[in-house]
Amino acid sequence: MSEKKEVIPDYTTSEALLASIISETNKYFHDGKDEERAKRLRETYEFARDAHEWQFRKSGEPYITHPLEAAKLLLILKPDIVSIQSCILHDVIEDTEKTKEDIKEKFWEDVAHICEWLSKLSAIKYQWEERTIESLRKMLVAMVDDLRVIIVKLADRLHNMQTLEFHPDPKKRERIALETLNIYAPIADRLGIFDFKEMLETECFKNLYREDYEKIQKELEELREEQVFFINKAKSLIREVITDDIPIVDVSYRIKSPYSIYRKLKRKEYSYSHTRDLYDLFAIRIITDSVPHCYEILGILHNRFVPMPKRFKDYIALPKENGYQSLHTTVVGLFPEVRSQPTEVQIRTPSMHKQAEIWVAAHFEYSETWASKSSKDSYWVQTIKSIIGEEHDGGTFMSEMHVNIFSDQIFLFTPKGDIITLPQGSTPIDFAYAIHSNLGNKLAIAKVNGQVVPLDYVLHNGESVQIITDAHKKPNPIWLSFVKTSKAKDYIRQFINREERSYFVEKWRFILNAYLEKHYQRWLDKELTILKNVDGKVLDTKQKEDVLVQIGNLSRKPTSLLKSIHDDVIRDQLGQRVTLDETEKKEKKANKTETQSEIWIIIGKERNIPYKMAKCCSPALWTSKIVGVIGQGIVTIHDLSCDNIQKVGLDRRIPARWSNEEEEWTTFEIECTVLDRRGILRDIANTVYTMGLNVLEISSHKPGSKTTTIKLLLETSEDDYYIFERLEARFRFEIPEIQEIKLISMH
Does pTM surpass 0.85? Predict the structure, then answer.
């Protein structure tokens, strides 16, 4: 709260904002109660204005302009009156002498309740560390309590971001921008409020990565001619192509947002260098009157232009989890005059468009008092509710949030044709538990599109899944290393806690010993002394084993465990962590750069692809960012900034990077006894490759006339402590000739 100023606040701007809010609100209610609604909004404004009377923004304006500007942004969603009132009053409890009871007495319980939660949210300070995860939990509890809390908070945050430049503290500006980018923008995305998402991301981008933001803005400005062409020609071209008997309600276009461009350029830096390289930079949106006409338009476009393979998505037949429906396709040759790149086209009906633009608002149902009757009912809200009630450490909680809330969804079919929605990366086990816990607990075989698949098979959109059960089967602990959904993990952990405790105690004793040996050259003692004091609590023997069970069932990570043990205990029991000092690192790096023959380059994901260094740019060993260019039998390695790269087609570029010995890898050696069969070594290698493992060494010998023993030294960069069990399961599923598999060592 700022100090009282000896000036009379100028409310000219705030009065104009209020008039605009009243006018815009009356446009979408259409109930003949304009004057009554205007009176209520003015009373709300006057209450907030008087409460904030001697408070001013850092820009010098009276404070009341901020909640009014936020409320005006909120009108994009066509919210109920309770939401608008709450937005105008959202800082009253926190920043003035007025209380929740004062608001309740004047403006009803719902308004007071939302304002109270907004006040609590304002007190949460984001650090993105485990100790602040509980604060995030509280925020999500508030969202579950009433969805209007978060839509008001999003509007508040958006206006704060738009005026963040006036804040004098650069560190606080960065904290606010990071909080917005990592929490509020993904929430806006998940709620289907895409205007809010893009505006929030743009403001964050501007504050966090100013140079990159200005570079992309400059590149977009250079494309101004193409943008103007799209504006002027898109409608006429589409109406020229589409026959008169198919109604066209509207044709519009969008340009990819600056932050989306930045992320794609970073993610695809080996393929794209500049904004104009992106083929989905522009998108045409066609709105027609009915679903049949959507498909007719799609057929016309595919006949007239060249559709890109694998770029067609039918979200009408298979809607997204939040109800989004549209046809997406990408065609070549739509605007050859100015752009050779393909163009994305979206086709939908007016109702689909409303759902797509402001999904959460599309579900508001207003009562006679202009309050929403459906603000507390949402699939997304129910998903949050199931997660925030679970006991997880901070890192696991954020992982669950990322997978179950902020990830894309896939749609799958049961044998009866029912649709099951799951996060991308889900497996048949996730599918089984999504239907019923007994189906998951007794899962024996999974079929996808009629074919038996491994249980860690990654499901794809539109596949049909059949689960076959066996009364004698039970959940396998190794499932925890690859299932995606919190529901599946919870049921598996419940089973483990009941019936597999001893397995996990011994399993994690083995894995933790390997971890400690690698980093401290020490082992656990019999009494588990290192675990005597965890999270500030003295543990007995059973509680120490409980910690091992938590780590074994992947609800706690080893790095998190060691952070929870006092530094003095770590030093007394383990000594100093075994790491290279700076001198050794420099010596190793210098040794690596002496000759090219001592260096390997990873091309794609492989180490042993033949390559040569480009003479035009001579990439600096171990320091330059590099990219490969596919030639005749060999890959040429260029510096990523090399001008010649721009002359090479995208289909000839391949990602490449220097190997990095400081990267964390898990290395393990296995021994397989197999029945002799021609091609079996190839099958073993294919299985290893499919699981994303590197083969460091391979050897074999024949102990008998019909069997062969094969030893493999394998490496993985994944934090997967059940990788051996997963590989064993895959081998037994895919290669029946394998008689025995043993884990020899793991580092």
Answer: no
